[in-house]
Structure formats: C-alpha cells, structure tokens
Amino acid sequence: xxxxxxxxxxxxxxxxxxxxxxxxxxxxxxxxxxxxxxxxxxxxxxxxxxxxxxxxxxxxxxxxxxxxxxxxxxxxxxxxxxxxxxxxxxxxxxxxxxxxxxxxxxxxxxxxxxxxxxxxxxxxxxxxxxxxxxxxxxxxxxxxxxxxxxxxxxxxxxxxxxxxxxxxxxxxxxxxxxxxxxxxxxxxxxxx
Length: 192
Hints:
The protein is mostly helical and about 190 residues long. It has helices spanning about 1-20, 25-35, 40-45, 50-70, 80-95, 105-110, 115-140, 150-175, 175-190. The protein has 2 domains: about 1-45, Homeodomain-like (Arc Repressor Mutant, subunit A, Orthogonal Bundle); about 50-190, Tetracycline Repressor, domain 2, CATH 1.10.357.10. The mean pLDDT is about 95.
C-alpha cells in the first residue's frame, strides 16, 4: 500500500514536471493529481528536492522502457537498432504534438547549475543514455557496419547531445523536422 501511494505521487509528479518544469510544479498540484492527501508527501519524501531526484529515476525507467526492447533486440543489426530508437522518439514527439521534450534534458537545463544533487543525478542519467548508444556502436563496429576508426564513446556522446539540441529546436519550431534531420545526419555520418 505504501509503495503504491509513493509511486502514484512520483508518476503524477513526473507527468507534471515533464510538462511544466520542476520550479513550476507545486507539491499540492502533484498530490491533487495523484489523489493523495496533503500529509502524504512528507511521509515519503524529505523535501521537494528529494522528490525531484526520485522523479529522475521515474524518467530513467520510462526511457529504458521505450529504448530497452529495441536496444536489446539482437535480431536486428546494431545500426538498425539505433535507427529504430530514433524513429521511436520521432513517432512519440509527433504524438505529443512537438511538446515536452526529453524530461532529463529539460531538467538539466533548468536545474543542472542550480543544485549539485540534481547535477550529479542528471549527469548519471545522461551517461546511461550515452552508454546505450556506445554499446550499439561497439556492436556496429564488431559487425563492420561502421568505421573501425570511429571513437564510439565520443560518437555516443555526440548523438545524445545533438538529440537534446534537436528537441529544443522541435519545441520552438513546433515541427518534427529537427528530429528527422538529426537522424539523417547521424546515420549518414555512421554509414560513411
């Protein structure tokens, strides 16, 4: 029962923070959305910051839920898995009408230089994303799908960083074009 209530608060908070940001999300708003009494918040969380840090774990789980099945699908060549991951998010953001962006990227911009605790947790989350791509790039190298000279760590970092930039452009242009361009350039570079 306790875990269910805490999870309801975290999931409601994740939805609101993804849409509005950390600072524009109030505790009472989260509790109302979760259908939980006011006193429950401090039973589960030491502070709003503690809550926000745990919401990052929810975002990580969401990301892995979307990416994991594709990344682990050994029936597909590694480069095709990268393409399918990028396509999955292109489809998702079209469904979201070009809104929200990456919750980890959003929080990184909002909180990355304001809280050391957030900065460290967000950096670890971005590194987890990077390692998924690095693993796939290492597989692509082993399969001779990409150049043996390619630095897979740096390339994975570039894919994640440029993806976040493309998401910012998508949000302000209200267009999926930046994400499609990102995918095209990444695949063109990898295949050259």
